[in-house]
Amino acid sequence: MATSPFWADLDWNVRPTEQGLLRRIHIDAPLLLGLLVLCGFGLMVLYSAGDQNLATVERQLVRLGIAFGLMLLIAQIPPTTLRRWSLGIYGVGVVMLIAVLIIGEIGKGAQRWLDLGVVRFQPSELLKLAVPMTVAWLLSQRPLPPRLLGILLAMMLTLFPVVLIAKQPDLGTSLLVASAGILVLFIAGLSWRMIIGLAIAAGALAPLLWMGMHDYQRDRVMTFLNPESDPLGTGYHIIQSQIAIGSGGISGKGWLNGTQSHLEFLPERHTDFIFAVIGEEFGFTGIVALLGLYLFIIFRGLMIAARAESNYDRLLAGGLTLVFFVYLFVNTGMVTGLLPVVGVPLPLISYGGTSMVTLMAGFGMLMAIETHKSKK
Amino acid sequence: MLEDSLEDRRREQRLVTVRAMVAAGFVLLGIGLILMRLTHLQMKMHEHFSVLSKDNRVKILPVSPTRGLIFDAQGALLAENHPSFSLELTIEKIDDLDATIAELAKLMPISEKDRARFERLKRQRMRFQAVPIRLNLTPTEVARFAVDSYRFPGVDVHAELIRTYPKAALTAHVLGYVGRINESELKSIDKGNYAGTNFIGKGGVEKAHEDLLHGRVGYQQVEVNARGRILRTLENTPPEPGQDLYLYLDTALQQAATEALGNRRGAVVAIDPRNGGVLALVSQPSFDPNLFVEGISQTDYDALLYSPDKPLYNRAVRGQYPPGSTVKPFIALGGLATGTINSRKGTYCPGYFSLPGQSHRFRCWRRGGHGTVNMREAIVQSCDVYFYSLANQMGIDKLHDFLATFGFGARTGVDISGELPGLLPSREWKERVRKQPWYPGETLIIGIGQGSFLATPIQLAAATATMANHGHFIQPRLGYASRVPGAPTAHKLPTVSQTLDVGDSSYWQTIIEDMAQVVEGARGTAKRIRSKDYRIAGKTGTAQVFTVGQKESYNAATTPERMRDHALFVAFAPVEDPRIAVAVIVENGGHGGSTAGPVARQVMDAYLVGSKLVQDQDQGEPHGD
């Protein structure tokens, strides 16, 4: 018994015809298990990073509840319906983005929120789902791999909202939205020649991007290149988070014992930099376990994509899963000093509701894709 | 058709599966990159980051030592440390300074004076150094702020010991005062030792004995958070407190000397010739040193700085006056010591002296002349012609060298900061500074203590004490002993002394008896201060403030007050067993005998006649040899 890992007991080869209880209510058991363990671990870390304030943990728990609820709700929607709605959701999202920009012009300053009276809402979050949905919808009209026209249309559908979001300015989200569109294209079989061509084009556009950046964004890039140049200014985050992670060593300082985080040296320790708290308190061992958990979720997502019924399902499932990975990679890369500081949270662990709701909605779609297969 | 479509669908599914697998490969690659980075940070660089993390949280905080107290000879407290609460702002930690101050003003009164001082100190501060906005908070104000302190990041109540001088103006010129360390002082001090200290001696004994009074800084190793809040103490090295200082100063005598001068401008220095201890050191007018401790307001400072009476000016050690006739006994001794004259030989005084072959008349203060006078008569009556002649015979070189042995023209080294050296002119000095040769006429003027010859009251007192001691010169000192707080015994501070050789030791007695006759003789210039209780040896002096022309005569009544002559008097008593030597200068006071003499007499009376009383009240602090 001890030799067989826990997933040996899981039902990996659930046939669409089999009708388990969870399956009947459109839940993918492995994905749900992975998400629950991850979120549970996240709450534990948050308790430590948030100065052992139970109120913080409770608020996060409420958000998690809402997000899981939304996930289960979306899982009930058949993918064919999602496909029909794709373009409509995209349209609504873009209109709201434009509205936010106009309000931002009037209010003078960064504007990301749309106040709908009852809830404040970030339209850019909606686009994280709408872009892969629309691109998947577009590319599934024709046989794969896509032809030039399809690629160009997909690029336009992606870049239009990306530019709007970048203007807010929100570099992190625009990066995630852009990657969502591109990753769907990749899953769709975009030819390697095109991929290389696009990479070269992106490289050529980099100086233009630099010119268009805000000062604080340039600062971040400069700081990334040389964090010691400004140890008390923009380099402070990176230096302190590396100290936190590095001083954690192999076994870590223990839960609730991280000096960097508890003595407030580590900025934004319960939001974007929570990964450093994990590194400090749980050490290399803890991080390997965490990354293993993420890997499990990502691989399950890719598996769902590979064996989905239709092209739309495959492209959407693959795109959403890979965006989840981009989240993870950008955040951990930033906190460990591999990438510049971009405001991307550690998915499902960082404190904050918006990205969590979007991510769980995405997992809801994955579950829908996995569980709504037509009986043979 | 259906076959084709099915084949297409299989192909598409294969394509997506392959892409998903490629993507999985990229995911593994990405995770691998992160793991590599973590291996680097958490394994290879672990030691390095552990040290950094410890450095982050462990801070070394200086703990300032308590400044030593200062006592007088009777054990009365002259400088103490008084606990005081102030409200301090660390400007670097405050986002909106004006708003914060406005909010604070709702909790406690913040006057214009407070704001002005804050602005001034703000400019002088170092980075992250807190600046006080309110001083001397009442307990109610401390409590009121404590309740609301969470609203004021960067604002703290700071408890510190504030130096206070209970005798205020009476001892201001002796003690000096302490004040906040300024930029220029920062350059000269040991920054480590002053890491936790805000105050430093700014003058007088406080500055001269700074090392002794300050002590050694202590350190605390504390754990702090990123905002610098101390969470706990890990290690503690307590500071070495500054040593308490016992002075020779006799506050009762200081009081008597101050009263003797009254509201006249001038200085009194009294020295115990037996040990060089400064018993009293008065410079009038004085000021309240307590004003300076927390930073004096510009208005108050200007009032002191620009007063025509110059209250900040320590006349006793910085006042450089022509010594006038008070140097005559020293010059007479020089005449004997160099073998230029003997004490019995007479000199004829017709009321003036002319150098051979020159028509210029150097006048005696008595226009009609003194007739033929010997050394005693010349000193007693202060005959100028006798000393013109003596100085002319000695020549400037011998005159300079002999007077220099009494300490003229050099700082005595008394432990009061800011002492000036006076000026004892010489041939070398004139060629160097004025780029002119020495003229014989100048030698004559030096002979009566005028011309470019300048001396400070402390120099005159020290020289007089040396005379009283038959040539045993002891450097004047205020500090008598120091004691580590709590230690059972005090440690006596060293003294510097040397003995002058005048060839024949009987010369001392000759001159001392001459000086006694100044007070006791029928024609003595200071006969009015003669005491029936003890014998006084003294010498009067008058220092010219401006030069009277050849054909004019000086008339005190018609001369504006500040242009009138300074009155000087030096004396010691009792003649047989000197216990006190005094130098007095009364600015624009006229004749030494009538103005400065009585001041000296009052001081000596207070010490010699009144001292019995003082000794009975002695509180037992160690004093005397």
Automatic annotation (TrEMBL), chain A:
Pathway: Cell wall biogenesis; peptidoglycan biosynthesis. The chain crosses the membrane at residues 31-49, 61-79, 85-104, 148-165, 171-188, 195-213, 282-303, 315-342, 348-369. It is a multi-pass membrane protein. One of its GO terms (biological process) is cell division. It holds the Pfam family FTSW_RODA_SPOVE. It is found in: Cell inner membrane; Membrane. It comes from the Bacteria. Its main location: membrane. Its EC number is 2.4.99.28. Keywords: Cell inner membrane, Cell membrane, Cell shape, Cell wall biogenesis/degradation, Glycosyltransferase, Membrane, Peptidoglycan synthesis, Transferase, Transmembrane, Transmembrane helix. Peptidoglycan polymerase that is essential for cell wall elongation. Belongs to the SEDS family. MrdB/RodA subfamily. This is Peptidoglycan glycosyltransferase MrdB. It comes from Thiorhodococcus mannitoliphagus. The gene is rodA.
Automatic annotation (TrEMBL), chain B:
SUPFAM superfamilies: beta-lactamase/transpeptidase-like (SSF56601), Penicillin binding protein dimerisation domain (SSF56519). InterPro entries: Beta-lactam/transpept, Beta-lactam/transpept-like, PBP_dimer, PBP_dimer_sf, PCN-bd_Tpept, Penicillin-binding_protein_2. GO terms for molecular function: penicillin binding; peptidoglycan L,D-transpeptidase activity; serine-type D-Ala-D-Ala carboxypeptidase activity. Its EC number is 3.4.16.4. The chain crosses the membrane at residues 20-38. Pathway: Cell wall biogenesis; peptidoglycan biosynthesis. It is found in: Cell inner membrane; Cell membrane; Membrane. It is a single-pass membrane protein. Keywords: Carboxypeptidase, Cell inner membrane, Cell membrane, Cell shape, Cell wall biogenesis/degradation, Hydrolase, Membrane, Peptidoglycan synthesis, Protease, Transmembrane, Transmembrane helix. It catalyses: Preferential cleavage: (Ac)2-L-Lys-D-Ala-|-D-Ala. Also transpeptidation of peptidyl-alanyl moieties that are N-acyl substituents of D-alanine. Residues 63-234 form the Penicillin-binding protein dimerisation domain. GO terms for biological process: cell wall organization; peptidoglycan biosynthetic process; proteolysis; regulation of cell shape. GO terms for cellular component: plasma membrane. Its main location: membrane. Catalyzes cross-linking of the peptidoglycan cell wall. Belongs to the transpeptidase family. MrdA subfamily. This is Peptidoglycan D,D-transpeptidase MrdA. It comes from Thiorhodococcus mannitoliphagus. The lineage of its organism: Bacteria, Pseudomonadati, Pseudomonadota, Gammaproteobacteria, Chromatiales.
